[in-house]
Amino acid sequence: LLGLDGGEKGAIELSPEYSNAIGATFMGAEPEVLPGGIEGQDTRHAAHLGDLWGCELPAAGGFDAAEMIEAAHNDRLKALVLLDIDPLFYFPDTRWVEDALARLACLITLGTFDTGRSGHTHFLLPTASVHEQAGTFTSGEGRLQYFESAARVVGSARTVRAILSALAGRLGHAWTFPSAQSVFQQMGRAIGALEGLSPVSLRGSVGRVLDLGQYRQEAASLMASAAGALGGENTPAAAPAGQYRLVTGNIGHHAGQLTHESEPSMNFASVPYALLHPEDCEALSVDAGHWIAVISERGRIEVTARPSPLVARGMIVVPVHYPDANPNRLRDRNRAADYVRIERVKGKEKDALQPNVAIAEVGTWTF
Prior knowledge:
Number of strands: 14
Helix content: 25-40%
Shape: globular
Strand content: 15-25%
Strand order of the largest sheet: 9-13-10-12-11-14
Structural class: alpha/beta
Order of helices and strands: HEEHHEHHEEEEHHHEHEHEHEEEEH
């Protein structure tokens, strides 16, 4: 299945869920990885970065996103900066996340829109949209591309670069990045793979494929990882009688929370829904468009039903993009799998689903 039994070399590529996720990791966004995709234990590279930045890098790695929430929950993290993300929207076990955010002494939110969903933000700093900023994207194959802004920043918004530089200045660090080009120059000094590249050389081209280093996994290592995942101890047990396994994911017609600020997008796909196997719908006496309640020990949401033969029996698939029906409210972070009950909502008018939306969205899931 993986194409590693003597077939075509490089037959499989595991694409990241979000655009530029590889780029962020390659720039050192993971706690155990230094810029350039180099392990944090590489003392030579760490010393080079320390000389460049005029400081000594910490010996231990930092927290990943889930560990930050855990640390805030346990009063080991007092301040947090969020950049275009609402943890209540994306993280499982919403009640646990909300309690963690409430414990913070300072929560700074940088975002294009004021979603107002967390209720715990102390400072909201409006950022320019991606179309109003310049920078780089690095695709899943490691192709680095440079882009210019397509529009001027309006209102009180500022570029992310400008806001983070100002925050760093208040904390005593003189970040002098007057432009996106100056950031790229700093990246080139920190990462050998970018040597010789510049916004000028990348502008108007298809970009440059970088060596992703540790992110290219050899066949034997990939096979071992796959075997471990398939035979791991976290394999969920069968669903209890009368319950369904809950699966969440992203869909093609919504880009996180951003499309909820777009009237045309919401006119096209505005009603929360769940996918169920047609035979499960029949057993529940539910047709397409009927409102159903999805219930766990954590809470309850209401969505419309959409039969789909692509969903396994005993499973319900709910997108995370609808704020009033986010399935993360139902999940328990400590469980390998979450199971829910499903009930038909009586007295609620059946929704007239648009057939083109129902058909198109089924094929655009990422789990």
